[in-house]
Amino acid sequence: MLAPRPHSSLPLLKYAARPLLHRRHPSPSIARLNSTSPPARFRLSYLWYGFCLAFGIGTGYAVRSFAAPPPLPKPGSREDQLALDALRSDVDALEIVKTLRAEGYHLHSDTPLKESGKGKGGWRELDIKTDIAKTTNNENKITRTLTQQSMAGAQGLVVQRAFWNSETRELVAVVWFGGALCGWPGLAHGGAIATAFDEVFSRVVVGPDSSLDSIPSPLSLSVTYARPTQTLNFYILRTSFSTPDIPQAAPAPEPIPKSWLPSWKDFTKKSVTADPEPTVQLSGTLETVDQKVCVKAKASFPASAVHISKR
């Protein structure tokens, strides 16, 4: 009788090891995708949060600036005086103000302003309290209500520093454009810019000490805008005389027909041709404190309006 054969464990081991031998390993691309997909989703979520935050801030700023802007302080109020004091400190710290004060007489020198032109040429700071239209002759008079009332206050056109050169009859003014001068949110109105040029041109024509009401309005004023003028900023106005306006030669008049009546009987009215009044031309620029030209302007005045100021 044959003894039973012992069971071999080798086939079982082969059978058990077979799935391990035929197991498929994941491809490198799938493994790479699985390893990078969570960080990509993480970055996309942060981009979405950033977009929502920027959209909310931009919408809030637009509503605050366009739909419901904050109220401006009333001229003469306590808030307005505090803002004016801060603006005066800021304008005195500008480099152009320091430079022009160093080149001539200014409000803080020991020499009285009335005697500042004696013995020394160059720049002289004008003694203006609020705007360039005011002088010592009309301290208690309000004749230019547009600049002295409508554009008054820290949100208007009041904080100014002006310097006059008696040798070249040139004027340099540092002007503040407040928030109330907006034609579009953040941008100065063209009428406010033209008004500032009108005041400065008139000051050049009349001189540093006379009243602006002693001369007529400009015969013409043209303004060319090179780039937007933003409000809540200081700007530099430069004005001076340019090439005089030479009138064109008029055509020869037609010959007057002779009358058959004697002169003592001829009562016909004869037209008298008046010569055109000579004019002077002025040019100016509105620049940023970085000397970037924003606006160019030209004006013409009657030559008889020019006052020869004493040094």
Automatic annotation (TrEMBL):
Keywords: Membrane, Transmembrane, Transmembrane helix. InterPro entries: HotDog_dom_sf (IPR029069), PTE-AB_protein (IPR052061). The keyword Transport does not apply. The chain crosses the membrane at residues 46-63. The keyword Cell inner membrane does not apply. This is Thioesterase domain-containing protein.
